[in-house]
Specification:
This protein is 56% helix and 3% strand. By secondary structure, it is mostly helical. The chain folds into 2 domains: 3-90, DNA polymerase, domain 1; 117-287, Intergrase catalytic core (hpI Integrase, Chain A, Orthogonal Bundle), CATH 1.10.443.10. A 3-stranded antiparallel sheet has the order 1-2-3, with no helix packed on it. Strand 1 (161-162) and strand 2 form a beta hairpin. Helix 2 (24-43) crosses helix 4 (71-90), helix 6 packs antiparallel against helix 8 (185-198) and helix 10 (242-257) packs antiparallel against helix 11. It is globular, with a radius of gyration of 24 Å.
Length: 302
């Protein structure tokens, strides 16, 4: 690609960072996606974005698919490409979007792993040792109590919590959307114990609610490893990860309430279809509801 074409990518990424305040995760992903597109164009001798045609985008996505890249990742790549082309059209550097109409292969709708209520209770009521495991317990309680994403939990600051009111404020959820969430009494109690020992670890001026043994904000990978360690210590025969606790929260809430809209709000989903993917009701529960409520299913009393 020409230097001007590469410069257009850099300007677009800067707009995402400064004006749209996209997350670091999104910026890193879009940078990689657009760099791969530039490399593909160079391999085909395309010097300008105006040289691109829909068949080039289809071929690029097909090449990525042959590399066994997941459908979800390819959908994200196309989203990055379309966003960039939209910017070029807005700046009158491009007339038509060559990615319009190009689709990634459909991703199978598979549900994440799920813990049942007894497994969750066993995890949260297990014996713990030392201050760091008390921190871990507070994190697991908060995950399950409020259905947080991993990034939301590690991004929490101490002022985001109101334990007296049983609330937590998520400042920057997915899509930079903020929301308040309830925090259960068990989670509040575990967090209060952690706050009693947090100062022994936290660096001066550190606002993060959960800190590492070195005193800074705890890393997402550290949380994942600590949860794997915790579940391994309990002898669970499955790999537990943070999203499993979020999914279990959603599933148990939906099973108890049958209120899909409420669960959607708690999870911070923009589209209710996403909530339907993340929730799970077993057939026995559905059959019981059917038997109790459908007018042609109930048995008449003799």
């Amino acid at each position: 690609m020409s230097p001007d074409a590469r410069e257009s990518v850099a300007r677009y990424l800067e707009i995402l960072r400064v004006q749209r305040r996209s997350s670091d995760h999104t910026l890193d992903a879009y940078t990689r996606d657009l760099d791969r597109l530039c490399t593909y164009c160079e391999s085909k001798g395309l010097a300008s974005w105006t040289d691109l045609r829909p068949q080039h985008i289809r071929a690029h996505i097909a090449d990525r698919h042959r590399e066994e890249i997941s459908s979800r990742s390819l959908q994200r790549e196309l989203s990055a490409i379309r966003g960039f082309f939209g910017y070029l059209i807005h700046e009158r550097l491009l007339d038509l979007d060559p990615a319009r109409g190009v689709r990634a292969p459909k991703a199978p709708r598979s549900l994440p792993g799920l813990l049942d209520v007894d497994q969750v209770v066993g995890m949260l009521e297990a014996n713990h040792e030392g201050c760091l495991e008390q921190r871990d317990l507070a994190m697991w309680e908060l995950f399950y109590s409020s259905g947080l994403r991993l990034s939301e939990l590690t991004g929490l600051d101490c002022p985001d919590l109101d334990l007296a009111a049983g609330l937590v404020f998520i400042r920057s959820g997915k899509g930079n959307k903020s929301r308040y969430l309830p925090v259960g009494s068990k989670a509040c109690a575990a967090i209060e114990v952690w706050l009693g020992v947090r100062e022994a670890f936290a660096k001066k001026g550190e606002n993060a609610l959960f800190v590492s043994r070195l005193g800074g904000r705890i890393a997402q990978r550290t949380v994942q490893k600590r949860l794997e360690r915790w579940s391994g210590k309990l002898g669970l025969d499955l790999r537990v990860h943070p999203h499993m606790l979020r999914h279990s929260f959603a599933s148990h809430m939906l099973e108890a309430s049958s209120d899909l809209r409420a669960v959607q709000e708690l999870l911070g989903h923009a589209n209710i279809a996403t909530t339907q993917i993340y929730t799970h009701l077993d057939f026995q529960h559905l059959a019981a509801v059917y038997d109790q409520t459908h007018p042609r299913a109930r048995k008449r009393e003799a």
